[in-house]
């Protein structure tokens, strides 16, 4: 979550290079950039201001994108990043579930704990 909102309000010029690299690994950042660009990008016209306000700083959508550090965001890069994360998470969950359900998995500590529970804490063994 911190990588997704790092640099908000300061723009992207004050973000160190190592933080930019870490921000590229955040799937929340990809989602947030895509959402901000979809709402405020693509040459959106000026937003209305209340008549009682003398000055509206965020009337221009480009100013809002500049202040949030997303002036160079690309919606297709955000969609590609989110798709890559979705494929990665689905593949990881498939293989972990397949490994967990396999009959020949070799996880000795789990087998040892299972034997202790079956021998010492089995309630069905007492009532036979």
From TrEMBL:
Transmembrane segments: 21-40, 75-97
Protein name per Swiss-Prot or TrEMBL: ATP-binding cassette sub-family G member 1
Record keywords, A-Z: ATP-binding, Membrane, Nucleotide-binding, Transmembrane, Transmembrane helix
Gene Ontology terms for molecular function: ATP binding
Provenance organism: Zootermopsis nevadensis (Dampwood termite)
Transmembrane helix in keyword set: yes
